[in-house]
């Protein structure tokens, strides 16, 4: 048998002949048997000498992706069918019974991939994904408890807004350093979206007026939204300002009030003055609050300057004796 009479690869090979013909045809076969074996695993019609990296490998990768997609869709269909069966069983069971808790737990476990899918949307929030999944699971449990299978709605369609809403509520109430009103937070999302659209359209960062005109709100509301967006991250008071080279906010805002030391003294003097007679109180007020001299005080009160001096000395003595700090 000659080499030209060998059967093509897309046909079944003829049985090996017995006797001398078998040994005669052996040398006619190629020595590199490994490529031939590899080519036998290729799809029908593929050439036997296809090198690695040729379009045959690309078709194999595409078929592998297609098979993965088909497997993923099959798992999703199985999960939906299982969920429907479990909800049918759950509806017939009495809440609080062990069997009800078992079926409810099976529903939660079967739909955890839905929670992970929803939590993946929040990967950029710098929060541990385990915490986000845990919060989303709470939303899943709430959706399971409220779901009515008789309404004809698929459970993933019903549960997804509840799961996402629970995660958003977690970020709004617990993650922010400063709590902002819900309306301001929702408006902040619109401001961010408008900023991205205007940046793409103009090729630059939009101004506050442009954002306000796009959303039909005031510029003050835009500025409030931008300020509210910073509540996710707290900045240290000691951190230096970027770009301007100025010292930290604590160094720029902090200063010593010269009148701070006198607060305690003024409170103490006020407490001691009420213990003096009314005339001595008036003399002290005229002397140290109105800045009058002793001669002016004597003319004001109709007494001698010497008497004013004696009253001041006696007042100082009483104040010192009543001052527990000096004692």
Automatic annotation (TrEMBL):
List where the protein spans the membrane.
none
Phylogenetic classification of the source organism: Bacteria, Bacillati, Actinomycetota, Actinomycetes, Kitasatosporales
Identify the stretch(es) annotated as Disordered: 1-79
Q: Which domain of life is it from?
A: Bacteria
- Ranges of Low complexity compositional bias? 1-44
One Pfam family of this chain: Sigma70_r4
- Per the record's keyword annotation, is Transcription regulation included, yes or no? yes
Single biological process term from Gene Ontology: DNA-templated transcription initiation
This protein's name: RNA polymerase subunit sigma
Q: InterPro entries given for it?
A: RNA_pol_sigma-70_dom, RNA_pol_sigma-B/F/G, RNA_pol_sigma70, RNA_pol_sigma70_r2, RNA_pol_sigma70_r3, RNA_pol_sigma70_r4, RNA_pol_sigma_r2, RNA_pol_sigma_r3/r4-like
UniProt keywords (A-Z) are: DNA-binding, Sigma factor, Transcription, Transcription regulation
Q: Residue spans with biased composition (Polar residues)?
A: 57-69
Which positions fall inside the RNA polymerase sigma-70 domain? 131-144
An example Gene Ontology molecular-function term: sigma factor activity
CDD domains to which the protein is assigned, alphabetical: Sigma70_r4 (cd06171)
